């Protein structure tokens, strides 16, 4: 199925080539895929992947929650740009996707997204997590079950290869290019705001004024707006600060560039203070500081700085919740694959690249239980299936699901199930 989803006048890359390339990818791999713009919105789709977002939207409408699909896609794209051109992630509904960024002049203008797929057969725990997260009723659970049955289950190695291939396809689309008409209009609007501020300062130049020196209060206000994730107000205040920088520099481009460097550092610090991921922000900071010398005009520099500010603001507000959900789903996937072995919080935290104490905190916040409690639930759930087979001794079952002490296993089992393992086996799970 080939679906055109929205107007594409603002796209700066070769959209026809992108559609043709993604169609070849989708048809040759059998994987549903779609193209998003720089705001995370789907602009062209192959397959029925929009069914998932439609289902997600429907479920969230019924529970008065906002759809996060665009933010999820954007998060995956940003991470792919950060991690070498591909990124595999979980959406808030627990499905696996992968992203490959489409860049023009080293700036993200869109991405290819593959999926949804599952890397494990859907189980009771996955369904319970989705049901609990969204507060679904019986009819919605039925719809969810019906949809999950259509989602392909693909082993992790193949998912990684599919992501690698999609990155190669996206790399063939990415290139250097000039600004689109919409971007030129956006850049002109920024320049207009800056010019107005310069004219205002010229008018009061001879007067004693709060604007006769560098507007530190404006800078503090800008940092507070970024920390709150307020893009619109942040852009307005940034334009005023840039107006002062241009006015006071006498149009000396080297001075303007030096002040821009200082602003990037300030913006990144505000993003971190607002709760953005430190490593992600510092990685972006390094990238931006190395890019600045390729810009040769004030117009290009200010437009670029505005995009940086928007990106940092996204990291603070729009994507924080998505990042946590992706991390948690990756942790749950790891637990389900390794519960039979000794498994520690530190081990799983290392797998998702987080500090153990921070991982423990967000795990408890998202799952409403401790890490140990969740691992025990997974192990007990696995033991229930094994207990139905009378040919497997209880001592073997205990070892197979990762416990090393029978009395502790019995205690946890009774707490979770309400009866002892022996009674569960004797009654075939109906006790």
TrEMBL record:
Residues 329-427 form the HTH araC/xylS-type domain. One of its GO terms (molecular function) is sequence-specific DNA binding. SUPFAM superfamilies: Homeodomain-like. The keyword Cell division does not apply. It holds the Pfam family PocR. Keywords: DNA-binding, Transcription, Transcription regulation. It comes from Acetivibrio clariflavus (strain DSM 19732 / NBRC 101661 / EBR45) (Clostridium clariflavum). SMART domains: HTH_ARAC. This is Response regulator containing CheY-like receiver domain and AraC-type DNA-binding domain. The keyword Transmembrane does not apply.
